[in-house]
Amino acid sequence: MPLVFVETRLEAVEHRRRVAQRQRGSTGYLGPTWEQLQQVPFDPWQAEHLAHKITIDTAVIEDAVAPATRWIRAYPG
Fold first, then answer.
1. What's the total number of domains in the chain?
2. 1 and 51 Cβ atoms separated by less than 8 Å
């Protein structure tokens, strides 16, 4: 079976909301703030370099898993 890349995307408004609503785990660490995340460099994947790639929107995770699973299972490899 070939290596398949699944890229997940989340629009900024929902991403920011999720960061703001994080709750402390057993370690007490909340992760980076929204402002800190904005400082992280982002290089989009170059599709021409990835033969087997699907991009899914994770705004509603339940809606994202099924299409990705179907795509991977249907891939002729």
1. 1
2. no
The two structure tokens encoding residue 4:
């398949």
Render pLDDT for 57-69 as a digit per residue (tens, 0 to 9). 888 877 778 877 8
Q: Tens of pLDDT along 19-50?
A: 998 887 778 888 889 999 999 998 877 766 66
Whether 1 and 49 have beta carbons less than 8 Å apart is answered as no
Q: Rounded CA gap, 24 and 43, in Å?
A: 29
User: What is the residue range of 23's domain?
Assistant: 5-74
From the CA atom positions of the chain, what is the Rg in Å?
A: 16
What is the per-residue pLDDT for 3? 73
What's the rounded Cα separation, in Å, for the pair 77 and 73? 9
Share in percent of the chain as helix, strand, coil (round to 5)? 40, 15, 45
